[in-house]
């Protein structure tokens, strides 16, 4: 198995447990209210509830095992569990970055194309965009995790991190990792830069559109819509 650096303690357990429960509760409330209230069946709240679901998944893949380590003092995780944890966190995290770009496009359509917003961001389009985020991230991250799992690992298997991330895992390998590191760099750069570029372009156009509005009230309303 793989060992963690020692950071056990009941205080850390309690702090992380409370933070974990608060985060899960907050995100669960967002998802529940969005599903239960028909008035919130809009693109913005669909994307927001999906993002909350992703956040629940990421922290649930990491924190429960961390709590067990704090409480038991047994700072180890099996290789299969380690790779599963790494896959879930990286996959859901990558999907979240892509979803942020989609959310910025939604705000762009709402502010810059208000007359066509309902036509552009119809339920089918929103569902396709969310599905696209998952579908784009899944093969990339699956391929990367499979590539990392095929490496040879040497002892001591100690991860200088608080969970099984792919970067620290790659550095534990005693085989040639150059191609794996290059693949990780390319995929990470693609996902992050795609999300960043789309978000910057969308919000730049939003700012330009808002500044061109004739009245201060309209500008305030537009910025309020954007910030929500």
Automatic annotation (TrEMBL):
Pfam family, one: 7tm_4
Major localisation: membrane
Domain G-protein coupled receptors family 1 profile: residue ranges: 26-228
A GO CC annotation given for this chain: plasma membrane
Molecular functions (GO terms): G protein-coupled receptor activity; olfactory receptor activity
Taxonomic superkingdom: Eukaryota
Alphabetized UniProt keyword annotations: Cell membrane, G-protein coupled receptor, Membrane, Olfaction, Receptor, Sensory transduction, Transducer, Transmembrane, Transmembrane helix
Sequence intervals crossing the membrane: 12-33, 45-71, 83-105, 126-146, 182-211
Compartments it resides in: Cell membrane
Membrane association type: Multi-pass membrane protein
Classification via PANTHER family: OLFACTORY RECEPTOR
Function according to Swiss-Prot or TrEMBL: Putative odorant or sperm cell receptor.
Family stated for the protein in its record: Belongs to the G-protein coupled receptor 1 family.
Entry protein name: Olfactory receptor
């Amino acid at each position: 198995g793989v060992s963690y650096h020692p950071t056990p303690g009941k205080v850390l357990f309690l702090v992380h447990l409370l933070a974990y429960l608060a985060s899960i509760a907050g995100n669960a409330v967002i998802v529940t209210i969005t599903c239960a209230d028909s008035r919130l069946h809009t693109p913005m709240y669909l994307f927001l509830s999906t993002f909350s679901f992703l956040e629940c998944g990421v922290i649930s893949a990491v924190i429960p095992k961390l709590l067990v380590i704090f409480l038991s003092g047994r700072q180890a995780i099996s290789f299969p569990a380690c790779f599963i944890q790494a896959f879930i966190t990286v996959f859901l995290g990558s999907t979240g970055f892509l979803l942020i770009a989609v959310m910025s496009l939604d705000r762009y359509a709402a502010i810059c194309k208000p007359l066509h917003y309902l036509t552009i961001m119809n339920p089918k389009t929103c569902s396709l965009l969310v599905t696209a985020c998952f579908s784009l991230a899944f093969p990339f991250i699956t391929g990367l995790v499979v590539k990392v799992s095929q490496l040879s690992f040497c002892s001591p298997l100690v991860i200088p991190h608080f969970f099984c991330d792919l970067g620290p895992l790659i550095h534990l390998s005693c085989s040639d990792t150059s191609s794996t590191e290059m693949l990780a760099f390319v995929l990470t750069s693609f996902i992050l830069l795609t999300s960043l570029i789309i978000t910057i372009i969308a919000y730049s156009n939003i700012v330009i559109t808002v500044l061109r509005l004739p009245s201060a009230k309209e500008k305030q309303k537009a910025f309020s819509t954007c910030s929500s």
